[in-house]
Design goal:
Layout (H helix, E strand, L loop, with lengths): L4 H4 L13 H11 L3 E5 L5 E6 H11 L10 H4 L21 H4 L7 E2 L5 H11 L3 E6 L2 E7 H13 L1
Parallel strand pairs: 3-4
Antiparallel strand pairs: 1-2, 4-5
């Protein structure tokens, strides 16, 4: 199996801006059936990542709840609640943005020429379900654990 990240990666990557409101991100995750997305600047340079868990943590802070369990996303966040429970119009705090909740520390990323077994190892060692494919600091793709499962299925079918 000589496949590389570039052979398997999803090239159409849903990205976020640091200025996007969190309520829009939650809606996007539900509509697209995803659980995370890279945060990029206007040139496509990787700035961070936002996951469903980041959204849970933000909602828990706003509502003064205990640390959330990632399985509780749909119970804690109400799609119809556009401001995460903040009364912005009544002079309350401003709605959090992606910049407020994103992980901007070390991100799980791979290069386009990374062999697929190395990509799988990166996902497993970091206990994550997606790796951002970057060339330099620019996002060029994303690989999820489901993409790797697809590779295994296709290999088995041969």
């Amino acid at each position: 199996m000589g496949l590389l990240a570039r052979d398997v990666m999803e090239r159409h990557v849903i990205t976020l801006s640091p200025n996007d409101p969190i309520s829009n991100v939650h809606r996007l995750f539900v509509e697209e059936g995803i659980h995370g997305a890279p945060v990029v600047d206007e040139t496509g340079r990787l700035l961070g990542v936002v996951s469903s868990l980041d959204l849970l943590r933000s909602a828990a802070e706003v509502h003064d709840l205990p640390e959330p369990d990632p399985r509780d996303l749909r119970q804690i966040l109400d799609l119809g609640n556009r401001s995460f429970g903040l009364d912005v119009e009544a002079g309350g705090a401003a709605e959090p943005t992606v910049a407020d909740v994103m992980t901007d520390g070390p991100m799980v990323s791979v290069r386009p020429d990374a062999p697929i077994p190395a990509v799988a190892r990166v996902l497993r060692e970091n206990a994550v379900h997606r790796a951002i494919v970057v060339e330099g600091r620019h996002v060029c793709g994303i690989i999820s654990s489901f993409d790797l499962l697809r590779v295994l299925e296709e290999e088995d079918a041969r």
